[in-house]
Specification:
This protein is an alpha+beta fold and 270 residues long. Among the domains are: 89 residues, Efflux pump adaptor protein, beta barrel domain (Elongation Factor Tu (Ef-tu), domain 3); 86 residues. The protein is built from 5 helices and 14 strands. The strands form 3 sheets. It has a 6-stranded antiparallel β-barrel. Strands 2-9-7-4 form a 4-stranded antiparallel sheet, with no helix packed on it. α2 packs antiparallel against α3. The protein is elongated and about 105 Å long.
């Protein structure tokens, strides 16, 4: 009986030690998104339409906000009209040049029977028209660039998602005035590509390699078993913080159900 009691006590001690080890806290980190952005407009303008709602999942290139665009549309029409005018002038000069070249050839062929002045005039006419055509072709090129510029300005009145993700906040209202690269318009997160950022002691961090599997528990009280996942080391900072002697490590974590969110706290067991 004494031997049995000793065995039972030993088993209980081992179980308690195992439970204590399992409950031992790991390193606390924060969940972050690989792709996140505060969207801003490159041009000034007035918000005309908001095309999404908070919580919407959007595709890359999908329009989020549209500004009033009447001024840009008018500017584009004016630029296109200028291009048509420049093209017409160049085409007219090109036709006159073809005629002048034929006249010059006839004058050169009949130079023996024509006055010297007539031959020189034919040659001068060709040179003048060639010079005019070069200037007008440059005008056409400038008009084409003007059209491209106005098309770009019109395109900028639609603020689009730079990557696929979830609109977490809309920070403007219809009628708001936007200042270029200053006014915050919307917040976008890609919830499918998340990682946990932790600080590890130098000795431990330098033993890790990209691809190493790591046990991660995200918000255990809230997510429970759904937050118990296996992540993989994606980055180990090659530098050491001089003050803390710690190293930043990033651990990619899967999020197929979308339950894990940026900003959540994660426990990483080494």
């Amino acid at each position: 009986m004494k031997a049995l009691r000793i065995a039972i006590i030993g088993a209980l001690v081992v179980a308690a030690a195992a439970a204590s080890s399992a409950q031992q806290p790991g390193v606390i980190g924060v969940v972050r998104a690989h792709d996140q952005a505060i969207l801003q407009s490159e041009i000034e303008g007035i918000v005309d339409r908001i095309l999404v709602h908070e919580g919407d999942v959007v595709e890359e290139g999908q329009a989020i906000v549209e500004l009033r665009r009447q001024r840009q549309e008018i500017a584009l029409e004016v630029a296109r009209a200028g291009l048509l005018r420049a093209d017409a002038q160049a085409a007219e000069t090109s036709a006159l040049l073809d005629t002048a070249r034929r006249e010059r050839e006839r004058a050169t062929t009949a130079a023996e029977v024509l006055a010297r002045k007539d031959v020189d005039d034919a040659r001068d006419a060709v040179e003048r028209l060639e010079a005019s055509l070069r200037v007008q072709q440059a005008d056409v090129a400038r008009a084409q660039q003007e059209v491209k510029l106005r098309e770009h300005e019109l395109k900028q009145t639609r603020l689009v998602a730079p990557f696929a993700g979830t609109i977490t906040r809309i920070l403007v209202h219809r009628g708001d005035a936007l200042n270029p690269v200053e006014t915050q318009v919307a917040e976008l997160f890609d919830m499918s590509r998340l990682y946990v950022e932790v600080l590890l002691p130098r000795q431990e961090a330098l033993r890790l390699r990209v691809g190493t599997a790591v046990a991660v528990q995200v918000e255990s009280e809230w997510l429970g078993k759904a937050g118990a996942i296996v992540g993989h080391v994606s980055y180990v900072n090659p530098t050491v913080d001089a003050a803390s002697r710690m190293v930043t490590v990033k651990i990619d974590v899967p999020n197929p159900s979308g339950a894990i969110r940026p900003g959540m706290v994660a426990n990483v067991r080494r």
